[in-house]
Amino acid sequence: MQHAKPLPSLLVQRYHGWKATTFAENSSWYRRLASEGQRPRSMVISCCDSRVHVTSIFGADSGEFFIHRNIANLVPPHQPDGAQHGTSAALEYAVTALEVSHLIVLGHSRCGGVQGCLDMCAGRAPELEEQSSFVGRWMDLLRPGYARVKDIVPEADQARALEKEAVLVSLENLMTFPFVRSAVEARTLSLHGLWTEIGAGELEYFDAVERRFVPV
Amino acid sequence: MQHAKPLPSLLVQRYHGWKATTFAENSSWYRRLASEGQRPRSMVISCCDSRVHVTSIFGADSGEFFIHRNIANLVPPHQPDGAQHGTSAALEYAVTALEVSHLIVLGHSRCGGVQGCLDMCAGRAPELEEQSSFVGRWMDLLRPGYARVKDIVPEADQARALEKEAVLVSLENLMTFPFVRSAVEARTLSLHGLWTEIGAGELEYFDAVERRFVPV
Amino acid sequence: MQHAKPLPSLLVQRYHGWKATTFAENSSWYRRLASEGQRPRSMVISCCDSRVHVTSIFGADSGEFFIHRNIANLVPPHQPDGAQHGTSAALEYAVTALEVSHLIVLGHSRCGGVQGCLDMCAGRAPELEEQSSFVGRWMDLLRPGYARVKDIVPEADQARALEKEAVLVSLENLMTFPFVRSAVEARTLSLHGLWTEIGAGELEYFDAVERRFVPV
Amino acid sequence: MQHAKPLPSLLVQRYHGWKATTFAENSSWYRRLASEGQRPRSMVISCCDSRVHVTSIFGADSGEFFIHRNIANLVPPHQPDGAQHGTSAALEYAVTALEVSHLIVLGHSRCGGVQGCLDMCAGRAPELEEQSSFVGRWMDLLRPGYARVKDIVPEADQARALEKEAVLVSLENLMTFPFVRSAVEARTLSLHGLWTEIGAGELEYFDAVERRFVPV
Hints:
4 copies of one chain form a homotetramer.
Chain A (H helix, E strand, L loop, with lengths): L8 H17 L1 H10 L5 E6 L6 H4 L7 E6 L15 H12 L4 E7 L3 H10 L4 H4 L4 H6 L3 H7 L8 H17 L3 H8 L4 E8 L4 E6 L4 E4 L1
Parallel strand pairs in A: 1-2, 1-3, 3-4
Antiparallel strand pairs in A: 4-5, 5-6
Helix pairs in contact in A: 8-9
């Protein structure tokens, strides 16, 4: 921590701008959120990608969304082995402590993590197959999605198909968590799968009846 | 995935509002970001908490921040064991593929995860000590911080002290990643520790010379 | 060049202050901008006036704005006659080489160039009408704006009206450049007209529907 | 002007941040600058490049620098032909109306305009040689600089040498303006040539005695 540097002055300036405007206009709400605690309606699991901010897309107010962001918006299957599982911890906290009503998985186009998975599965990225590759091992979670895509989808469309599979694999894995399953069955929690095309600003949701993504 | 539900209409409405305004105003920029790829300047590691959105505090533009959010903004130590490490994967992608210039860890007041860690370490939360508790195992990462706080800081101040330790533990663990260390030493990457008081909108950064958090 | 003098020591001091603070805090970002090249999102055309710095108003980061500044933020019409056109060259570089997404023309109150144009057009500044007057010939570009203002706007308001016309004339002339027009029509580029009142810090934009400037 | 769009909301937000902080803190100074007019000490001629903001490097206050920015910080020779010369107009206004004391030409590393000139002069950029190329015709101004560099400087160093020539050519051309020459000779105006290395944040000035650029 002796390596820590002061914040770049531009960000300091922007923070003061926020403090004097957005914060000042909403200070009583922020104060109340601080004293009463958060009570978010939804948890969102989305990608770290700098081009996909769910708070922007849904005009989110402070206190509304509990947000976990990781590479390619993936949820691993339930694995209560005593090891550190950051995504599972976030999920457990949201569902059992905060009791959110909605669990939204948001995928997106041009996802670097998904592209890496595709390259790895197709044998084009040996460096991702090494044990020491954190990205490679994380993207292993999407291998079941690749298996469903590789023989059916033309190669040119596989990246997009796999991005949507990343949402579906996560939805499937979510149901392996007992606390998610029981909340869904008790109808206190609903799951939602979304995918956004970042260049065109399109948003699609997974329609469980049609079994495909359709525009919202 | 047969459990997936359509998006609540409130969010559909807000999405259409965003599409007609923010997206429309910036469509050429979004299109360019989509075709050229992201080039974020900074990675931010912050908490899932619904009251702390770094994009708001810093008025972030699309494309500026690569954001990983987990419980209590924790970074585990480097552990190249072939298991799934979501935080490490995000870190690896940001530093080695995107080559971000800044790595910012943002902690905050009233953090539920940190409070859970405090309760667990003080013996007040046996349920978090169970192997099956994802939150408990995740918060184990902060035990070294608790060890530094417990005998020195008065009990009433321990939560706040531990929130700041969560930032410092993460900064320490960041340096155990060879790719982070070498980028820091090559001065192509700088680390920053921040903590925000959500009720008052205050922002502090860790001053490595003074060895304490000071207002920006 | 035998006339060149060393930099005044005050500026040398300030440079060293910047180097030790802003530059040091952002050195990895500057290094990256140097090696990867700039990728600005916007081009701004604003006045040379020392009281109007767009980088300040918008808290601009290094790399964000490609800025051309001339007297009265004027864009001449497209004139591919092989002569030297500094504004057209800047425009061509921004739109065709850098492919900026936004083109912002920023006018301002108390503009000396615009006042000169008004005086010249009203016959009160014969020295500006001489062929050898660079300011006069440059301000000829705004004569079409004066024609729209002179009989309609009361004399006391003409300076302000003409400042806004300077923005509108530039917006019109921008569309005479084939590369601007085609980018606008392809929706990869959007044009924006702004005017700022420097004493009150107000900012207005041209609303193309209402056909007038309104506060942002 | 029917094509003008509203300002992107992010810039609106940043403007409000500036208004509530920097502007609010300095409102009396801004008001005075508005009512009394500007009285800048220096004119700076620098490049449009988004990575070179002289206001940042010299921590410029509002009112201090009258700034003209064009491609490659070039000043054309005095040409009182009645045509539109934006750079000459800015120069004339600064020296004869504002009576600035310093005229600073600031060049920089990795200049796209200079690189284009180099490619054109070396026969590698036929598109820039076309009459319709505004960038090409503008960069013709630097041909005398290329002539001094081409046979003496090794090819690998020519871009940097030509960037510095861009400053020197401008200093030479400045002296062809009668109002500049007479002010310099009356010692009411001094000229300065600077060049900055953007990746390392270095700043050099032209030393007329040594006849080379040296660090400030």
